[in-house]
Design a protein that fits this description.
With 109 residues, this protein is mostly helical. The chain is rod-shaped and about 155 Å long. The model has no long low-confidence stretch (mean pLDDT 90).
Amino acid sequence: MGQLTDSHVRDIVRSEVHTLSNDIRRDIAKLESRLQDMHALQSDVQRTLHDIEQVMGQTKNIASVSSVLSQLQLSIDDIRARVKQAEESNRYTAGYVAMRLKERYEKHY
């Protein structure tokens, strides 16, 4: 190996420091790139969470709407039953009135 002079040692140290400095810069650039990727991922997760919260809110509304629809169906069924009773009552009343009119008509003629 020959003799190492102060100049040679300085050049070797400078070269190693330069190489190490470039390696550190390259590693920092990789870390910054990964950090940007993590920030993008975090933004995506936040958007997804917001979307999930909206869907959950809509799901709660669906349950409420379903309850209202069930109540409406019960009311419609009740109205149908009442209409049917009213129709039967009207038929009975019409039959009774017709019978009474027939009796009157027969008595007078």
